[in-house]
Design brief:
This protein is 7% helix and 56% strand. It has 778 residues and is mainly beta. 39% of the residues are buried.
């Protein structure tokens, strides 16, 4: 017994000696990455279970364990938004490992919002407005809100109608997605502003270039995304009230929002929103513009229900507005029209301020119903089905004498009554990281019906379109690559009289779209985005068949039913450089078009029973559009910063060997910002001086336009913003002045620059009141 015990103790001693004598100086280095997009995860917690050691990764996701022995180790990794993950590592020599951490499913009791995931960087140039920029632009139209993004300008029709333009392209080449639905309210001309209430959105972003394949073949200039916040998923009731006052036009706007999630009905959430806006005649530095008032009444509501693997949402919105059309643009005879095009001010410049909206005017309405359902087959595969119905009406009341019957009864029918109904359906299948690949496959369908009554401008028509697309993304730490392909067909059946003959005109258009992009990210400071692709679009009904008075633009327009599809080949490159003090972004783009469709002055003036108007015709030519966008911000110190933003567009018409008409002129925006140190009651206070320089558009075709391009101009502006804390209530206040020096100018891309100056100085106040009405304490 003694011998056995002695042998056992000797064995233990020998084993202990061998263990102590082995090399325990091994080093384990590692990097933690996001499984979905290969982004390094800084400040993750890395726990070695035995022996217990806990460290945190640095900002590059790196960690080091030293003085380890040979053997098998278990490592627990934790990071916000990701699943806690246990890894087993066999260590026989010092090594460096890469650990991929999957996203969590954001569990909320029995509810699992699997659809909420971080979007990957797009290979196209994407710019998004900051919360501060959104706050400073509340109460403005969508076009004016988006002007804060570099490379975006607007095509205006006076002071009240503004349509966004990206890289010199707008209208049918620029898709606008309202809460995920393609906005279908622009089918009657380029001057019509999008029927969208900006108060509904908390996020405005622009995807520039032809690479946005999933949104449609005709996204040649890019895509504008107008998105509300996701519906809430915590038991609470919150809200927001916005108050806006603009001195020029004495415009006032108010909006309210309430949203919440049901405590006893887990998974349900809701939102209610509404806004009203009213303004009168706006004023240039020297005179009022008669009949330029507007009224808006808008509302929306949403309801959602989400479970662990599936969810559904419903959304409804309504936009209603009445817009006065500047009376100085509707002239009774050719002599006065010729005179008006030559004068520096309207023939009738004695107008006074008024809120009344007289003839000519437009009454506009837009309804949207959206249904969305999504199902998650696994953590990597999911499907979505999105259906929507839209109705857009536009009633135009011309400047004319009322008949005796109309005066006696008070019932006045619109001179043109247009209505378009659109129905869309999209089915999408997505997968996340599968051997570093991530993809989207989809089908889309759209049906449209247009009906009009009154004077002719565009015919009745039925349009059916369908498309199929696929994109795949390959993601690694330093590089991402994406390719996509899409095929679309459109069938347009039009019904109209040609003289006394009834015509039923069927046109079919079909083509493919391609795209390839790469993101090179050698370090955390510099990223390079390169994207190349092709795109196309079918000619729109107004480009094919319009023939008559376009009241909103005060023109006569004529289309061409023989137009072919427009095609484009695009190359875009963007470099982004970011440090603690300097942010710099530079984008270059090149677009080569075959059969580019544009509206051109004919040189003729025409007299009708409604008055005298300049005549414009649609043309189709071979052109190129290229340019540069740039923006930068330099933080001088903790209080002072300097910003710079600008754009250059060059467009050439090969068919006539001259410049392309109606391109934005060169412009540069400067701002100097001072952050005021916070006090108890006032936080995030800043003062900012802005100045915009716009050059004269020298690059326009000679002797084509009805009036020469106006001179360049400079506009000075001021902004003061702060957050005020009154007990438990916070207020966001912004005070601003635009065109502070009341400069007299005309914008080349304003359709009414033929007749009048742009608006003068305006003093503005914006107040946002966030509300917390209820929140579950636990």
């Amino acid at each position: 017994m003694f011998i056995k015990k002695h042998i056992f103790l000797c064995g233990l001693f020998l084993i202990s000696f061998l263990v102590k004598s082995q090399d325990c100086k091994l080093i384990l280095r590692g990097v933690i990455e996001d499984q979905d997009n290969s982004e390094t995860l800084g400040f993750a917690v890395v726990k070695l279970l035995k022996p217990e050691m806990i460290i945190q990764t640095n900002d590059k996701g790196e960690f080091v364990f030293s003085n380890l022995c040979e053997g098998e180790y278990q490592i627990l990794v934790q990071h916000i938004g990701c699943n806690d993950t246990l890894f087993t590592i066999k260590l026989n020599k010092s090594k460096k490992i890469l650990l991929k951490l999957p996203h969590s499913m954001n569990n909320l009791d029995e509810v699992d919002i699997m659809d909420k995931r971080t979007e990957m960087k797009k290979t196209q140039t994407v710019e998004q407005l900051s919360d501060e920029e959104i706050q400073k632009s509340k109460g403005q139209s969508l076009g004016d809100v988006l002007k804060n993004i570099s490379g975006v300008t607007t095509l205006n029709t006076g002071a009240t109608i503004s349509k966004p333009m990206v890289h010199g392209m707008q209208g049918y080449r620029l898709l606008i997605l309202n809460n995920g639905i393609r906005q279908e309210g622009q089918q009657w001309g380029n001057e019509h502003a999008p029927e969208i209430d900006p108060f509904i959105a908390k996020k405005f972003s622009v995807i520039k270039g032809v690479g946005a394949i999933r949104y449609g073949s005709d996204a040649i200039a890019g895509v504008v995304l107008v998105e509300p916040n996701e519906l809430p998923d915590t038991a609470a009731m919150t809200g927001e009230v916005n108050l806006v006052g603009l001195s020029n036009g004495q415009t006032g706007a108010v909006s309210g929002l309430l949203e919440g999630s049901f405590e006893k009905l887990k998974g349900f959430s809701w939102r209610l929103q509404g806004s009203m806006k009213k303004g009168g005649n706006v004023k240039t530095p020297n005179y009022f513009l008669a009949n330029t008032g507007l009224e808006e009444k808008n509302f929306s509501y949403a309801l959602g229900y989400h479970r662990k693997k599936w969810g559904a949402e419903m959304y409804y919105s309504q936009f209603n507005s009445a817009i006065g059309i500047f009376q100085g643009s509707h002239i009774g005879n050719l002599t006065d029209l010729t005179k008006a095009l030559q004068l520096n001010k309207p023939i009738d410049s004695l107008a006074a301020f008024s809120f009344s909206i007289d003839r000519p005017n437009q009454v506009i309405g837009h309804e949207l119903i959206k249904g969305l359902t999504h199902y998650h087959f696994s953590s990597k595969w999911r499907a979505k089905i999105l259906c929507a119905w839209q109705y857009n009406k536009r009633q135009e009341f011309d400047l004319r004498r009322l008949t005796t019957l109309e005066k006696e009864t008070g019932k006045v029918a619109p001179d043109l009554d247009l209505g378009i109904t659109s129905q869309t359906a999209d089915a999408i299948l997505e997968h996340d990281n599968i051997k570093a690949f991530r993809g989207i496959f989809g089908l889309s369908y759209m049906n449209q019906k247009n009906i009009y009554s009154g004077r002719f401008f565009i015919p009745n028509y039925i349009s059916n379109s369908f498309g199929v697309f696929a994109t795949e993304r390959y993601v690694k730490r330093y590089i991402e690559m994406e390719v996509g392909i899409r095929y679309d067909e459109k069938h347009l059946q039009s019904y109209f009289y040609e003289g006394k003959d009834w015509k039923e005109h069927l046109r079919t258009f079909k083509n493919s779209t391609y795209n390839a992009g790469v993101i090179w990210k050698p370090n955390s400071v510099f990223n390079l985005f390169v994207n190349a692709g092709s795109a196309w679009r079918a000619p729109a009904p107004n480009e094919l068949y319009s023939n008559g008075i376009h009241q909103g633009a005060a023109t006569i327009e004529r289309g061409n039913p023989d137009f072919k599809s427009e095609t484009c080949y695009n190359l875009t490159a963007t470099g982004i450089y970011k440090t603690k003090k300097l942010n710099l972004e530079l984008s270059a783009y090149y677009n080569r078009f075959e059969n580019f469709i544009y509206l051109s002055p004919s040189g003729e003036l025409e007299l009708t029973i409604r008055g005298a108007f300049p005549v414009f015709v649609y043309k189709q030519d071979k052109v190129k559009i290229s340019g540069l966008d740039f923006k930068s911000n330099y933080l001088i110190n903790n209080y002072f910063s300097f910003g710079l933003k600008g754009m250059i567009v060059r467009a050439w018409n090969y068919s006539i060997s001259d410049y392309l008409i109606y391109m934005p002129s060169d412009r540069l925006d400067l701002n100097f910002k001072f952050k005021i140190p916070g006090k108890k009651m006032f936080q995030n206070t800043y003062f900012q001086i802005n100045n915009q320089f716009v050059a004269k558009q020298w690059r326009s075709p000679l002797d084509v336009d009805f009036a020469p391009a106006p001179n360049g101009y400079s506009l000075l502006g001021l902004d003061l913003g702060t957050e005020v804390q009154i007990k438990k209530q916070k207020l966001l206040i912004n005070l601003s002045a635009t065109n502070l020096l009341n400069a007299r100018y005309r914008e080349y891309l304003d359709r009414f620059r033929y007749y009048a100056d742009a608006i003068g100085v305006s003093y503005n106040v914006r107040i946002t009141i966030p509300l917390l009405l209820y929140k579950k304490t636990n």
